[in-house]
Specification:
Helix 18 (412-429) crosses helix 21 and helix 20 packs parallel to helix 22 (495-503). The chain starts with a strand and ends with a helix. The protein contains 23 helices and 18 strands. It is an alpha/beta fold and 513 residues long. The chain folds into three domains: 2-179, Ribosomal Protein S5, domain 2, CATH 3.30.230; 195-434, 3-Layer(aba) Sandwich (Rossmann fold); 441-513, Helicase, Ruva Protein, domain 3, CATH 1.10.8.
C-alpha cells in the first residue's frame, strides 16, 4: 500500500517541501530509500525500525520503497525519521488514510520512540505559513523557537505514540499558544559592559558613536593595551534594539546551524550578535561553505557585529572573502551540487597594531620595526579591503592620568540615546526603501542626500587630491559626514562634518606622510 506524508528539508537557510512517499509491496524483505538521501537519511532505517518496535507498533516487513520528492535536491538531516515512521504505519493500514492531509511532520527518532529536536525548525515553520499548511507537527523542544509564527497550528510531540494517537483521533494534539515577539524580547543585557569603563580615548569613543549611528565599518589601530578590544566589545551596548523582522532573519540562520539554544537570549535571537572568531579561522568558517554549504561567521553576525581582532594576522585569502559581502550584504556559496545565498549584513569592526612589534608612534616604548617590516605587515591588508572600511581611527596609549582617574566616562545609555536619534532621522529619510542606515546608500541615493556646495565641495576636492582617494573612499567619506550631521541634527552636510569624516581615514593619511 502507498502512503504520502508531507515533510520539509533545508536548502541553505530556506525550507522546501518534501513528499515522503512510502510503498510496501509484495516481494522479498528489502528497504530502499531514493530521492538523493544523504547518509544521515539513509541511516534512518535502523532508527525507524527500532522506534516503531519499541513503541509497541509493527509494520509489514516486505519490499519497502521510500521516495523523497523532489528527487533532484539533496536531502540531509535526521528530521525525516518521524514522517518515514508515520508513512510506514499508514502503509500498513494502522492509520486512517485521510489523517495525513494538510499537516507537515518532521522530527528525529530515538530507538525508544522519543522525538528529538532538529535543526532548522524556524525556516520550516515560516515555509508552512507561506504555503498555507494548516498544522506543523514537530519535536516539543523546537516549539519555543517557532511559536512566534502565526497562521500555523504548532503541535509539539515528545514520542512517536503521541503522533499515532493524534492521527487515529484517540488523543488529538493541542496547538501551542501563539507568542508575541515582546514575550521573548528583553532589554539587552551586556553583562555589566559599559562605555563608562573606558578611560580616556575620547576620539575613539566618538568614532564608535559615529559608526553605530550610521552602521559604518570600523578599524581601530593602536599599540597593545590601548583598549581596542574593550572599545569593540562595547559597540553593541549603543546599537538600536533588533526589530521583529531582524530577529527572525538572524534566528533562521542560528536555527539552521543549531545554535539557537546557545545564543544566550532564549529561543529567538533578540540581541544583536557579536561574533569574534579567532584569526586561525578558515575561509569556509568565515564566509560559509563545506560540501553541503552552511553559513559562516559572517552570516552568524547578520544584523550584528563581526569583530576581527589582530586583523593582519588573519590569512590574506580569508580576509579577501569579506570584500563582496561588505558591499552586497549577502554571501553566495557555490558548490558542484548546489548554490545557496545567505544574508550577511554585518557591521565589521577590526583592530590591529600599527606595526609588527606594536609600538610604532608610541611615546612610551620604542619601535624597532624597519620600514620594510612595516610595509610587509601592512601589505597583509589589501587596498580594496581597506577601501570598504569607512572609519579608520588611531587608538593611542592611555596616559597614566586617565588610568588613575576616578571619574567615570560617559555611559553607554547616553551615547545610545544620540545614536537612536540619528537612526530615527535615517529611518525617515529612507522611508519606503530597503535602506535602513547611511552606510547602505547606493550612488543614486548618495547624490540625492549628500550633495555638497561651496566650501564643503572644495574641502573634499582637496582631500581627494592630497590623499589620492578612490571613488569608493570618496563615497564613504560622504556617508560618514552624513551620519555626523545626523548626530548633530543638521539638515545639510557642513564643512566641519566633512573635516571630521576625512580625519577618520587614518591609513590613507599615514600612507602619504
Amino acid at each position: 500500500m502507498l502512503s504520502r506524508v508531507l515533510s520539509a528539508g533545508l536548502h541553505g537557510i530556506e525550507g522546501f517541501l518534501v513528499d515522503v512517499e512510502v510503498d510496501i509491496a509484495l516481494g522479498l524483505a528489502n528497504w530502499n530509500t531514493v530521492g538523493l538521501p544523504e547518509s544521515s537519511v539513509r541511516e534512518s532505517r535502523d532508527r525507524v525500525i527500532a522506534a516503531i518496535k519499541n513503541s509497541g507498533y509493527s509494520f509489514e516487513r516486505k519490499r519497502i520503497t521510500i521516495n523523497l520528492a523532489p528527487a533532484d535536491i539533496k536531502k540531509e538531516g535526521t528530521g525525516f525519521d518521524l514522517p518515514i515512521a508515520i508513512g510506514l504505519l499508514a502503509s500498513s493500514e494502522l492509520l486512517p488514510g485521510d489523517s495525513l492531509k494538510d499537516q507537515l511532520i518532521l522530527g528525529e527518532l530515538s530507538l525508544h520512540g522519543e522525538i528529538k529536536p532538529i535543526h532548522g525548525a524556524l525556516p520550516i515553520a515560516l515555509l508552512c505559513r507561506k504555503k498555507k499548511i494548516h498544522r506543523l507537527i514537530l519535536p516539543a523542544m523546537n516549539v519555543s523557537e517557532v511559536s512566534v509564527v502565526g497562521g500555523v497550528e504548532i503541535c509539539g510531540v515528545g514520542h512517536l505514540s503521541e503522533v499515532v494517537q493524534h492521527l487515529t483521533g484517540e488523543k488529538p494534539l493541542q496547538p501551542a499558544p501563539l507568542k508575541l515577539f515582546s514575550d521573548f524580547f528583553t532589554v539587552a543585557s551586556h553583562e555589566g559592559i559599559d562605555f563608562s569603563e573606558i578611560k580616556g580615548q575620547t576620539q575613539a569613543k566618538r568614532a564608535l558613536e559615529v559608526a553605530a549611528a550610521g552602521q559604518h565599518n570600523l578599524l581601530l589601530i593602536g599599540p597593545p593595551g590601548s583598549g581596542k578590544t574593550m572599545l569593540a566589545q562595547r559597540l553593541p551596548t549603543i546599537l538600536p534594539d533588533m526589530s521583529f523582522d531582524e530577529s527572525l532573519e538572524t534566528s533562521k540562520i542560528y536555527s539552521v546551524v543549531g545554535l539557537l539554544a546557545d545564543n544566550g537570549n532564549g529561543p529567538l535571537v533578540t540581541r544583536r550578535p557579536f561574533r569574534a572568531p579567532h584569526h586561525t579561522i578558515s575561509t569556509a568558517g568565515l564566509a560559509g561553505g563545506g560540501s553541503h554549504p552552511r553559513p559562516g561567521e559572517l552570516s552568524l553576525a547578520h544584523n550584528g557585529v563581526l569583530f576581527l581582532d589582530e586583523f593582519p594576522e588573519f590569512p590574506r585569502n580569508v580576509l579577501e572573502v569579506l570584500r563582496q559581502p561588505l558591499e552586497s550584504g549577502h554571501v553566495t556559496i557555490a558548490r558542484a551540487l548546489s548554490t545557496i545565498t545567505v544574508p550577511a549584513r554585518t557591521q565589521l569592526v577590526a583592530s590591529m597594531n600599527p606595526c609588527k612589534c606594536g609600538f610604532r608612534g608610541s611615546q612610551l616604548r620604542d619601535c624597532y620595526c624597519s620600514e620594510k617590516s612595516l610595509q610587509s605587515y601592512r601589505s597583509k591588508l589589501s587596498g580594496p579591503l581597506l577601501d570598504r572600511i569607512d572609519i579608520q581611527i588611531e587608538v593611542p596609549p592611555v596616559p597614566y592620568g586617565d588610568l588613575a582617574s576616578q571619574h567615570e566616562g560617559e555611559s553607554s545609555a547616553r551615547i545610545r540615546d544620540r545614536v537612536l536619534r540619528a537612526r530615527r532621522i535615517q529611518e525617515e529619510r529612507f522611508k519606503g526603501s530597503k535602506i535602513h542606515a547611511n552606510s547602505q546608500m547606493n550612488g543614486r541615493v548618495l547624490r540625492r542626500h549628500c550633495a555638497l556646495e561651496g566650501k564643503g565641495a572644495e574641502l573634499l576636492e582637496k582631500a581627494v587630491a592630497k590623499l589620492a582617494l578612490s571613488a569608493r573612499a570618496y563615497d564613504r567619506i560622504l556617508k560618514v559626514a552624513r551620519t555626523i550631521s545626523d548626530l548633530e541634527g543638521a539638515a545639510d552636510i557642513q564643512p566641519k562634518h566633512l573635516a571630521e569624516a576625512i580625519q577618520y581615514r587614518s591609513l590613507d593619511r599615514n600612507l602619504i606622510s
